[in-house]
User: Fold this.
Amino acid sequence: MPRSKRSQEGYLLVDHRASPGIPSALVQTGHFLDAPAGKVAECPTYTCSHCHRVVVMNPLRTRSREWCGSCDHYICDACGAAKKAGAACRTLNQLFDQLQEGMTHG
Assistant:
């Protein structure tokens, strides 16, 4: 059965119904999810298969997300830039396997 891209998503829930929330000045930096006092914020996430960075998917993003056809997973913008610059697809799990094999054979 083929997987969908959505089947690889995680989920982030920020519940500020009983807290002061995240100040709007921090939200404007682009590094924080907009979760004001008394509100709940929900967003899908994905884990980059190349570096295992967890990425919160901004629902307001207009440009396309980076996708690696070799490993058939979403990748973060930094790994997408490296791939466009000629880096080969190498997932973090593949790197771990190579390191582990090197330790057992070395």
Remarks:
- The beta strands are 10-15, 40-47, 54-56, 67-68, 73-74.
- The first strand starts at residue 10 and ends at 15.
